[in-house]
């Protein structure tokens, strides 16, 4: 049984989560990630370390949980007037955010959480799918053709993430635009 899945979304539990998440963000803004500990977070959040251990298990799971929350988009993708330019704009922004220092740190936190399941990574992938789906739905509403969401994940998102994770240099804007262009070859 996973304790986190049985926590009620409101009340004290939500306040504790919000307080602990804020403490993590505040501490990470003031100190190196390697200096952040559960006792420091507990003090900053006004809870006991046992509360954090009970809820998250260990520091890595907590950092992953905070990262997932921070990776959640706060707005739908920008409507630029066409499906292709919507996807271009979104993909460039996605690549910039994920390739930034904080973006890479959050990706590392999500991927290195000790949970045997892929719950945190799955949430991040779900956020990305939701953003692409929003662009696809807008395109359909305009009567424009748009590739399947999974095709966009495979042909645009996956290469961006691969470069961010395994290459010395993040994908350039030109590279990101060329990935999108392959999905719209006869247009423009």
Automatic annotation (TrEMBL):
Where along the sequence lies the DNA-binding region? 37-56
Q: Tell me which Pfam families the record gives.
A: TetR_C_11, TetR_N
Keyword 4Fe-4S appears in the UniProt entry: no
Identify the keywords attached in UniProt to this record, alphabetized: DNA-binding, Transcription, Transcription regulation
Q: Which InterPro entries match?
A: Homeodomain-like_sf, HTH-type_TetR-like_transc_reg, HTH_TetR, Tet_transcr_reg_TetR-rel_C_sf, TetR_C
Q: Which domain of life is it from?
A: Bacteria
Does Repressor appear among the keywords?
no
Domain HTH tetR-type positions: 14-74
Family matches, as PANTHER family: HTH-TYPE TRANSCRIPTIONAL REGULATOR RUTR, TETR-FAMILY TRANSCRIPTIONAL REGULATOR
Protein name per UniProt: AcrR family transcriptional regulator
Q: Where does this protein come from, organism-wise? A: Rhizobium herbae
